[in-house]
UniProtKB/TrEMBL annotation:
Keywords: Membrane, Transmembrane, Transmembrane helix
Transmembrane regions listed in the UniProt entry: 29-59
Superkingdom of the organism of origin: Bacteria
Species per Swiss-Prot/TrEMBL record: Alkalibacillus salilacus
Record's protein name: TM2 domain-containing membrane protein YozV
Amino acid sequence: MQKNAGLAAVLSFLFSGLGQVYNGEIGKGVIFMVAYAISALLMIVIIGFITTPIIWIWGMIDAHKSAERINRRYESEQRIS
């Protein structure tokens, strides 16, 4: 099933990992959620101020690219059928 890459990115913008879950990549989404939570806790010791935005942005980009990859795979399977 095709995925909306823009929606995947917006979902990850709203909550890190949610775009991956939308794409059907549940494990990856949970990893992003846990990494983001740990990074947010690390703000107590300053390093989180660096890692949290990186994980957040990486999650949005990954969700978008994963949706595009899923769509390309879906389209190639439709041509074969």
